[in-house]
Specification:
Layout (H helix, E strand, L loop, with lengths): L1 E17 L5 E20 L4 E6 L15 H13 L5 E6 L10 H16 L6 H11 L11 E6 L3 E4 L9 E6 L6 H11 L14 H14 L2 H5 L3 E2 L2 H7 L1 H12 L4 E4 L6 E5 L2 H8 L8 E6 L19 E3 L7 E3 L1
Parallel strand pairs: 1-8, 3-4
Antiparallel strand pairs: 1-2, 2-4, 2-5, 3-13, 5-6, 7-10, 7-11, 9-10, 11-12
Helix pairs in contact: 1-2, 2-3, 4-7, 7-8
């Protein structure tokens, strides 16, 4: 079974203070994009994992496969159904590791859904989402399709109805800076001591903000969408990692209509009016040192972990600092 495991982009990310469970509160509009990993699942004598890539540096990936989210997803679904489900997993990585694009969470969601089909388990989507929430805050959103709003610590997911909306063209860039998520959130805490409420770019009502963003996405005009996108983690990330700030400035100078941090970094997203403009941005000298990709948002009705999926356009990836082909077994 060959499955497409897409990356995500947070078009908005509002953060509140720490919850009782130790997580920060989140309210975020998230969309899936045509950049993704290929995940192959096959029944086998034992569970194994192979990860390969010629565009992504895999050195920071855990060498113990039991720590990988994809294998943890297998173990969790085995525990849920009460039997062993030996599966060979092969992942072709195109999503940068630790870049704020949700690659590991996407792989976990893809494995959960794929295992359900491969082994004819018949688990409903609600059950898969509950399992995914045990693996990570971002996992449930990848079990949905199109654009979603996620709240809580990320486990509460609501689909936004964008049926018929045009796709957005985006350029992603990453200079290789590793931005540890806890460190970025600590930077937010320093900037917002004692803050318990969300910020919505000047609005106090998250429902109103999300509705305005949804209407802009429905129209598909990049300049309108760019007025609403924001990320509360951008400032603390830029404070601590000047290389990421430099990537954002490079995307702006290259001609993007709107620029924002992806998740907690260090990938930065730039919005462009068309794929042709995206190609020109990719070729801009200020981004020559970065990994970069021209992508489009995926439409409603396309399940994230159901494939094989043909992206809307061919994803163009440029590697600023090529890494040798590597594998984790």
């Amino acid at each position: 079974m060959l499955l497409f495991s897409p990356a995500k982009v947070n078009l908005s990310l509002a953060v509140s203070g720490l919850r009782e469970d130790g997580y920060h509160g989140l309210d975020s509009v998230v969309t899936l994009v045509s950049l993704g990993d290929d995940v192959t699942l096959e029944r086998a004598a034992e569970t194994t994992l192979e990860v390969v890539s010629d565009t992504v540096d895999l050195q920071s990936m855990p060498q113990d496969c039991e720590r990988n989210l994809a294998v943890r997803a297998v173990r969790l679904i085995e525990q849920s159904v009460g039997r062993v489900l030996p599966t060979a997993i092969r992942i072709v990585k195109r999503i940068p590791l630790g870049g704020g694009l949700g690659g590991g969470s996407s792989n976990a969601a893809t494995v959960l859904k794929g295992m359900n089909e491969l082994w004819h388990l018949g688990l409903p989507l609600d059950t898969l989402c509950a399992l995914g929430a045990q693996l990570g805050s971002d996992v449930p959103l990848f079990l949905q399709d199109g654009t979603v709003r996620m709240c809580g610590r990320g486990e509460q997911v609501e689909r936004l109805n964008l049926s018929g909306a045009p796709s957005l063209c985006l350029v992603l860039a990453n200079d290789g800076t590793h931005c540890p998520t806890p460190q970025v959130y600590r930077g937010w805490d320093v900037r917002h001591p004692g803050v318990e409420n969300f910020s919505y770019k000047g609005l106090t009502d998250g429902d109103v903000f999300c509705d305005n963003l949804r209407l802009s996405l429905q129209k598909g005009k990049v300049t309108d969408v760019a007025t609403w996108v924001f990320n509360d983690l951008e400032a603390p990330c830029f404070d601590q990692f000047p290389g990421v700030r430099g990537t954002a400035e490079a995307l702006q100078s290259a001609g993007c209509d709107g620029v924002l941090l992806c998740g907690s970094g260090g990938t930065v997203c730039g919005m462009v009016a068309s794929a042709e403009v995206g190609e020109r941005v990719l070729a801009h000298p200020a981004l020559a040192h970065c990994w970069r990709a021209s992508v489009q948002t995926l439409p409603d009705g396309v399940m994230a972990a159901h494939g094989p999926l043909t992206p809307i356009v061919m994803v163009r990836i440029h590697v600023g600092q090529p890494c040798p082909s590597a594998s984790v077994k």
